[in-house]
Each structure stands twice: as structure tokens, then as C-alpha cells.
Amino acid sequence: MKPLSALFWIYAVMAALHESTVQAEKRGEIRPPSGGGGRGRSSVGRDSLSITTLEEAGSCQQQARTGDIVSFEHSGFVHEAPGQLAEQWNGRQIDQSPQNEPLKVKVGQRNLIRGMDLSLEGLCVGQKISVIIPPQLAFDDPEMKFDWNKKERPCPQGSSVRYDIKVLTIHSQGGASFDKTTLFAVVVIIAIFATIGVVLMKQSVKAGAKPAKEKKKRR
User: Fold this and answer.
1) What is the pLDDT of residue 39?
2) E-strand stretches of the chain
3) How far is residue 29's CA from residue 25's CA, in Å, rounded to a whole number?
4) Which of 33, 69, 70, 149 has minimal Cβ neighbours within 10 Å of its Cβ?
């Protein structure tokens, strides 16, 4: 196989795989990783959230990841209270950005209810979402160890909540952060150089074998 032909097929296959992944994410068949890192968290994760995009980002140069400092505007509502409390509580606002100022947090540090924290991962600057969070990732989360004896619950026990979140800034912490496009480009470049190396090695072996055959024939 000629070098240019090999490079063409490598690039074509990887481009097709990349496009397939992008389309699957748009259809919701693939979700970004939760980034928990296996640090003892429960199995309840990002897949338990219902996320709807309200506003797309103009361009996404960077996605929020665990450890990034993210500032965002938010407002929170009771999505569904249990039983007879639903009529009184459903749709009630329970949270809002303090004095209309953006909230700034480090993603993955549990400075928020876990559902909000998880929903920030993968978002871009300018993107706005609405996320419905089940009770076990909201104010009934056993891992957050809320002490409701010392402060008032924002909503009844067993309530799911909805948060509207708009990302304003993202600042990476502790090292480089690669977006999907950059990672794909790196993989393609590595594959191209690996293919060139293999092809050149084969050609070198063939070129070395020809003189040996010619010598045998002369004998």
C-alpha cells in the first residue's frame, strides 16, 4: 500500500468515527463522562439528571471539567414535591444567584448540591441549560450530610428540583485541558506518523531484500 493511500484511509476512518460520535452525542445516545474519578461516590451520577439545552454556546473553545473554576448564573425551583404537597410546592422558586451576581465554584468539590455540580461538567461558556435533579442528588443526598435540624429545608423531603444554569466563564486549574477537537487532531497526527513509519520500514526491508536476491542469482 502506498503511503498516501494509507494516510487517506486512516484519516477517512477516523473522521467517520468522530462524526458518528458527535451525532450520537447530539441525539443524546452518548453522554459526557461524569468525571467522578472513582473517589468513593455512589453509583448515582450524571445519567440520573434530565438536562435540556436552552441556549447553545456561540463557539465552544473549552468545556468545564472537574477542577475548573466556573462562574454561572442560576435559579432553582421545586420540580415535583411528593403527594399532597405538590399543589403547594411545584414550581416554587427556592434559589437564585445572590443579588443577581454570578456564583463561582470549583467543579467537583461539592460546594453545590451534587446534581448541579455534575450538570456543570461538559458545559461551554455561554451555554444555558435546564436540569431536573432527583431528590438523592439534591437536598436528600446522603453524601452531602445536610443537617436540617440546624437550618430550614428549602423544599419538602423527597422533592426533585429544577435549576436553570448559564455558564459565564471557565478557568482551568492545574494543567492543560484538551477539548474534543484538539484530542481528535492529536490522535490523527499520531496515527499518520505511525502509518508513515510502518510504510517506510516495509519499503526499507524490501529495498534491502532486492540486492540480496540479485547476489543469489549471480551466484
Assistant:
1) 40
2) 50-55, 69-80, 93-96, 103-106, 128-133, 160-171
3) 6
4) 149
